[in-house]
Amino acid sequence: MSSVRTPRRGGRVRALAGALGPARARLGRALRAGRELVVTRLGPPLGVISPIGWTLLAAAVVCWVVGLRLHLTELTVLAAVLTVPLLVAGVFILGRSAYRVTMDLSSTRVVVGERALGTIEVMNDSSRAMLPARIELAVGGATAQFLVPRLAPERAHEEIFAIPTRRREVLVVGPVRSVRDDPLGLMRRQVTWARAQEVYVHPRTARLDGFETGYLRDLEGTPSSALSSSDIAFHALREYVSGDDRRHVHWRTTARTGRLMVRQFEETRRSHVVVALGNVGVHFAGEAEFELAVSVAASLAAQTLREEKELTALSVDARLSARTYRSLMDDYTLAATVRARHGLRDLARTASESAPSASAVMLVVGSGATVTELAAATSELPVGVIAVAVRCVDGASVRRSHLGGLEIVDVGAIEHLPRALRAVAR
């Protein structure tokens, strides 16, 4: 007698799951298509209704449904009263915008404390007069509004605006939108005309007098008062001393005087300055102190560029662009504090590796930088380099001190920097 095998339960489950798989996939595709339809087709029309408008619309719908279903005249009348403002608001936002809006910024780079100036022009391109309108300009997290009067055909209206700058940042100006709304604020329709633009608010800098930033021997440098036995700038002849290179013996003078004479040269030098911003967050007592440090570093770097000396600009987390003044100030605009356990030491090591032939390293640090950290940073610098640490202490007076081969000068305001550097140069 043959036995009939019944399929295992696990096999039935797998078969059911296999059958439901395609259906689940079709359902997912249908849901995604429905969501895209709502976002692309219904999103813009529904987006014109404000939160107050949605509240009023919901109240009107409830009153209509309950009033008609329960035959309550009071609720039906209330529903009609609530519906009228919605219909009036819809009339306010109807119509096409037949004008053109452009925004022009006079400069996309300003310094903290200056005003960023710009203009907005509204042009009526249609053949009919344009009703008064409102233009909104987004500036960072705020919004500025401009009222445009009635414009005749082919006429333009221009608005000049000024943006005050109080701190170093990249300020996003724009976009420019035209706005239509009703007096009750139930509906709001806006059209974007001009794209957003970035305005770099550069740190304040101090104009520094020419200051000595250290020199090293270099065949492509300029002559100095230091004398050398091997260089390219000829200075004079002197008598031979044991150890001199015989290739520099001047044989004609030797034959005439009967003594061995060698050429002596003026040592040529060049200046390669490293400006290192120690942007370690725990080293600064507050935001004002860090802003002072950024201004000091930017001032030192800018002066180095003006004097056409070689510059390497660094921070703990980045190497700044020193190709042009503009790119350098843009990078200082983006500077921010970081968390780093051995920030100054790592910064000095990076400076030594990036510019091994540097003649001077200017460390810009906060008031929280300890003597131990400064000593550890100095030990990473190349031998013979001129090392100066500018310690930014908000409100402090200029004070000079030494730590081994490191010159330390305290600065309390950006206006004190020229005097502080003159004190170091003495």
UniProtKB/TrEMBL annotation:
Keywords: Membrane, Transmembrane, Transmembrane helix
Pfam families in the cross-refs: DUF58 (PF01882)
TM segment ranges: 49-68, 75-95
Domain of life from the UniProt record: Bacteria
Transmembrane listed as a keyword: yes
Domain DUF58: 237-318
InterPro entries hit by this protein: DUF58 (IPR002881)
The protein's name in its UniProt record: DUF58 domain-containing protein
Provenance organism: Brachybacterium huguangmaarense
Phylogenetic classification of the source organism: Bacteria, Bacillati, Actinomycetota, Actinomycetes, Micrococcales
